[in-house]
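Q: What would this chain look like folded?
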Amino acid sequence: MNSLLRLLIVFGGATLLTLALGRLTELLLNRASSRHPETPLWGLLHRCRPSLQVLFLAILLRATYRQLTWPEFRDHATAVSVVGRGLTLLVIGASAWCVIRVSRAVVESSYARYANGGRGGRRDPSRLRRLRTQVTLIMRIVTAVVIVIAAAAMLLTFPALRTVGTSLLASAGIIGIVAGVAAQSTLGNLFAGFQIAFGDLVRIGDTVVVDGEWGTVEEVTLTFLTVRTWDERRITMPVSYFTGRPFENWSRGGIQMTGTVFLHCHHTVPVEAMRARLKQILDDCPAWDRRAWDLAVTDTTPSTVVVRAIVTAKDPDDLWTLRCAVRERLVTWLAEQHPDALPRITAAVVPSASAGEED
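A: My prediction, written as structure tokens:
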């Protein structure tokens, strides 16, 4: 009975202290959040409470498990070793979990503070997309590094693996060369991911044109990048594509764009009336940002002239809508008001040889 009572005291006491620590942490975070409501870090740190409680409980159990007085437990060295190693692995895993949660809270706090306008109440959409891309990649890097370190620390708790690790270090040079050759493509994509994140080549939310397809960058990882096209398809490609080949980034330096609409008309087309009609169409179209517009004859052929209309919009989506609207309404206006200005094909009837013989 004394052994059972000691067991209950050890586990019960550790559990109560863990709950008390969680409650104290919550009170401190709430107090800090009320004093500094402009800082989102304190609210995000609430997510770290479960990992912190698990870590604290594991540490308490690891420090007190030898206080158990069961004779079967104390006299069995293997059982003591297994329990101790299991609790050590739990401490390492909980520590990694806590570090990842805290790092995510700190990084997301920096992004959220800027996204909400910062101290000046203003935010740059281009800068916001860049920070979002960097935050995503930084968290993936931190998570991967912490997991690798935690896994290595867990393996080092086993004496047998220490011997294996010593023998592997002796041949690290050969293994490094072989791994470098085998993982050349993977390492290339990895370094390309760093270059994209901190070189500001492409960001989440940018409108790009790759392989003749235009779309919006939806996801950026350390090895691949996903582009969502206008028809809801997803194009996935390695990030090394964007560091080794030229591509169009319509969001670079601002997302406003200038587009053109080409129409083939007859030589008798009333250009001045067409220019006035274009201005009316633009005034009635909400997609036009009123920055610039123009209409001019840019080329001529023996049968037609090429009329080019220039329009502007605040982003690629509005530009596509505006170009379609201008093209549709100009063609409709020509068909209704000036049908002779539409392209015409001149044809002549050639008399057949049999008709000439009959005459």
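The first strand starts at residue 207 and ends at 210.
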